[in-house]
Amino acid sequence: MTSAELFEIVKPNVNGVTPSSNFYDSKIKFLINEVLGYLESAGVPESALTEKTAGIVTVGVNDLFDLPSGTIKFSPYFYQRVTQLEAKATREKREAAGNV
Fold first, then answer.
1. How far from 5 is each of 11, 12, 72, 86, 98, CA to CA, in Å?
2. 53-57: long-range pairs with CB below 8 Å, 24+
3. What angle do CA 64, 65, 69 make, to 5 degrees?
4. How far apart are CA 25 and CA 33, in angstroms?
5. Is the pLDDT of residue 100 over 70?
6. 86, 42 contact by CB (below 8 A)
7. Rounded to an integer, what distance in angstroms lies between the CA atom of residue 69 and that of residue 84?
8. pLDDT digits 0-9 by tens, 55-77
C-alpha cells in the first residue's frame, strides 16, 4: 500500500478533520509516517499493511493528533493491535520457512 493510498484511507477518519479541507494534510502525513515507523520498529512488516490493516494506522494517528507535546501516548487498543500484527507476521514467517 502506498503512502498516498494510506493517506486517502486515514484522512477521512481523523477525528475533527473535514475531509474536504487540506489544512491538516501535512500534519496527518507526518503522523502517518510516525505510526509507520513505530510499526516497523515493533516488527510489523510493510507487507502487512493493507487496506484491511490500515485501521491501526488510523487509530495511531487519532491517538497522536490532538495531544500536546510531552503527553504523546498510544491507546491500549493500538498496542494490542500492534502486538497482534507482529505475532501474525512472525507466525507467517515461521510457516513459510517450514518451522511450524
1. 10, 12, 26, 22, 33
2. 53/85, 54/1, 54/6, 54/9, 54/10, 55/81, 56/81, 56/82, 56/85, 57/6, 57/9, 57/10, 57/32
3. 65
4. 12
5. no
6. yes
7. 28
8. 999 999 999 998 887 887 899 99
pTM for the complete prediction?
A: 0.89
**CB within 8 Å of 3: residues ≥ 6 apart:** 29, 32, 33
Provide the grid cell at 86.
Answer: 507482529
Residue 50 is classified by DSSP as S
User: What does 19-32 look like in DSSP terms, one character per residue?
Assistant: TT--TTHHHHHHHH
Q: Cα dist. 22→27, 52, 90 in Å?
A: 10, 25, 38
Q: How far apart are CA 82 and CA 35, in angstroms?
A: 10
Angle between helices 25-41 and 54-65 (to 10 degrees): 120
